[in-house]
Amino acid sequence: MTETTVIRNADWVVAFDKAKGEHVYLRDADVAFEGNRITHVGKGYEGKADVEIDGRNRVVMPGMINVHSHPTSEPLRKGITDETRSPGFWHSSLYEYLSTFENDPDGYAACMQVALAELLMSGCTTVADLSIAFDGWLDTLADSGIRAVIAPMYRDARWYTTDGHELKYDWNKENGRKGFEKAARLLDLAKQHPSGRLSGMVCPAQIDTCSPELIRDSYDLAVEKNLPFQIHAAQSVTEFLEMQRRHGLTPIQWMESIGALGEHSIIGHGIFLDHHPWLHWTTRKDLGLLADSGSTVAHCPTVFARRGITLRTFGGYLRAGVNMGIGTDTYPHNFLEEMRCVAMYARVIGESVDDLNTSDVFNAATMGGAKALRQPDIGGIAPGFKADIVLLDARHPAMMPLREPVRSLVYVAGDRAVNDVFVDGNQVVKDGKCLTIDLQAASEALQEAQQRSLKKVSKLDWNGRSADELAPMAYRTVDRLN
Q1: How distant, in Å, are the alpha carbons of 243, 250, 316 from that of 282?
Q2: What is the DSSP string of 408-468?
Q3: Coil, strand, or helix at residue 10?
Q4: What is the pTM of this model?
Q5: CB-CB contact of 308 with 271 (8 Å)
């Protein structure tokens, strides 16, 4: 028999009105789920109840959806790429740093566990994992309890530089094709995984490292299998200029020309469109192409803000009709902090509070993500939706005085208010602690992995620089005070 859990008399429920396609607030309501599906949202539940949870002093809301993440690598770079400089590449960290501060196979699982625990404890219940496949990848995701969309990356070429300002490409299309075929097999394995919480995404890594044939075949596979398709595009000035040099088109216009824009498409970052002021470009087509094609932009503000780079602007993309999702492209994998950054940076760069509403951010973190991942039964609290549920402590001092739950959560309380989290009907966070991952042990293993990485830096850097030269400490370290 499937167990039924009832959250009774919740002070607030961020429920989903299916008829109008929008979130609403319910007061003093019950939420019931049987197995992995929500069966009741409203007052006076009188059905079966195997487990009862007191909803008084609780806010019940849907789990957040992360459409872009690199959990096998990014947590390792904490304290390293916080404020790195790369003047030859418009201060993007992509070309001099990401291939220099590398994780190793022994560190992948620990790195991922740290990221997944942070996500779960910040109310994120679904993650798109853009990683290079490794042994045990799918089981590590499944064991965490999260709902995961694997996106095994592959490409035809790797980046490299020999001088810190010219980007070069080492092409090997045979390896790209092998990577594509391996990824296709992994997508099938994810669908068949016994956890029932894994699915797949087709993911050629970057627009400038993949041939048009590889991108077109990838998009065709996504359409054939009804999967999302994601590619990093319009993520740097260097990439924009390279694509224009090759094809005479912006990255977005070139994707449209080869038939790789559509409702399956997720553009990782999509910052440097033809209207971005850093480019001073001659067209204004890109936003319209994204909107008309039904594509999604995966917006990850924190990692770019560290380099002084922002989307222009989140509200502007929405007004143009572009579906927006949110991701954590860097550490920390604190999804609620990322949502706060979405709102703050949009208003700063748009020079107006009117650039967006808090509801726009929450919608992107839920409905926008569900649409992008082609999973319409997540991201909402309503009968028939998956039981991906977050309970907030309405009595937490950071949530009080409580007049407006979502604003209080996003702008003030953040993950401090996250009390309990359920994914697919199973509890994965209790009293703010992750039940499925030993975060302390994973963090200690990640510390060791970072130390191994730092020792290799000078051998990987084009100019033989050490970790301290590439990423200087905030203060000098001394043996004693004078």
Answers
A1: 15, 10, 19
A2: HIIIIIGGGGEEEEEETTEEEEETTEESS--HHHHHHHHHHHHHHHHHHHHHHSTT---HH
A3: strand
A4: 0.97
A5: no
Does residue 482 surpass a pLDDT of 90? no
Tokens of 328: 């954590």
pLDDT tens profile 430-461? 999 999 999 999 999 999 999 999 999 999 99
Domains observed in the chain: 4-62+382-434 (2.30.40.10), 64-372 (3.20.20.140)
Residue reference for tokens 């706060």: 340
Residue 202 bridge partners (DSSP): 229
Residues 6+ apart with CB under 8 A from 271: 234, 235, 304, 309, 310, 311, 312
Evaluate whether 60 touches 14 at the Cβ level (below 8 Å). Answer: yes
Cα atoms in the 13 Å half-sphere on the side-chain side of 30: 18
Looking up tokens 């309990």 gives 420
Q: 250 — phi, psi (to 5°)? A: -70, 160
Q: What is the token pair recorded at 186?
A: 């992994």
Q: In DSSP terms, which residues pair with 198 in a beta bridge?
A: 148
Contact call for residues 50 and 2 (beta carbons, < 8 A): no
Contact 402, 394 (CB under 8 A): yes
Residue 308: pLDDT band by 50, 70, 90 thresholds? Answer: very high
